[in-house]
From TrEMBL:
It comes from Vagococcus teuberi. Signal peptide: none annotated. InterPro entries: 6-PGluconate_DH-like_C_sf, 6PGD_dom2, 6PGDH_NADP-bd, HIBADH-like_NADP-bd, HIBADH-related, NAD(P)-bd_dom_sf. It holds the Pfam family NAD_binding_11. The active site is at K171. Keywords: NAD, Oxidoreductase. It comes from the Bacteria. This is Oxidoreductase. GO terms for molecular function: NAD binding; NADP binding; oxidoreductase activity. Belongs to the HIBADH-related family. Residues 3-159 form the 6-phosphogluconate dehydrogenase NADP-binding domain. Residues 165-284 form the 3-hydroxyisobutyrate dehydrogenase-like NAD-binding domain. PANTHER family: 3-HYDROXYISOBUTYRATE DEHYDROGENASE-LIKE 1, MITOCHONDRIAL-RELATED (PTHR43060:SF15). The keyword NAD applies.
Amino acid sequence: METIGFIGTGVMGASIVKHLLKAGYSVNVYNRTKSKTDELLKEGAIWQDTPKDVTNKSDVIFSMVGYPKDVEEIYYGENGVFSGKVDGKIVIDMTTSTPSLAKKIEETALELGAESLDAPVSGGDLGAKNGTLTTMVGGKKEVYDKVEPILNVFSSKVNLQGKAGSGQHTKMANQIMIAGTMTGMTELLVYAKSAGLDLAKVLDTVGGGSAANWSLANYAPRILKEDFTPGFFAKHFLKDLNIALEEAEKMSIELPATKEARNLYQALVDQGFENDGTQALIKLWWDI
């Protein structure tokens, strides 16, 4: 059984590591804030001081951090992944990042005798906790085949989308869809409340019809409880929408609805709610 390395144990990463430990894998972990690994260390994960150390002591190295600049740092920075003994190993970046960075990582990995996949996920904190994430993979099929059993430990659906960067492009398509469902859900609640309706009844009714969707089922009830704990940070969703719009511009396509969703999340972040979950979009309308 391969030894796993995992860099980035935030909301999603910590749950993924727990699944890997329960499946019997030995897992080396690194996080910028060590205290966020305390629970994992109690459950058997092994702390390493740098991404380089994780790489040296692991066969398959996962990373899941916040922004493309963070990915650059942990792979190319001092004591980064690529400064370690990476020859013969597989690196898998699960961060929602740019397709171009995924391609760059693959090129560097190949130069150093390693292999690489980009594998962003969808499903939020609940998907990570339940081991039911959807994982979108870009890279070579022969590399994917080697690690598919590991990906299945924490995923209910895993698909190879194509060459390096394809996982990231698929995640952008996913986020474009989520932008629509989140703004639609928010405006549904604003409208229903203004009309004097019982919001719980509205959600129960609408959720049983053609408007049913994951965001409505999972995030609308949190809003009614005024629970804005991040299953996915608003600031990270804003980052994703900006990447999607940048990629769309490169392909000379217009995404006006996605652009408006981006503007709304930018306004939310500008008001200081960047560390709330994406469901906090309702705060642009409701004083809660």
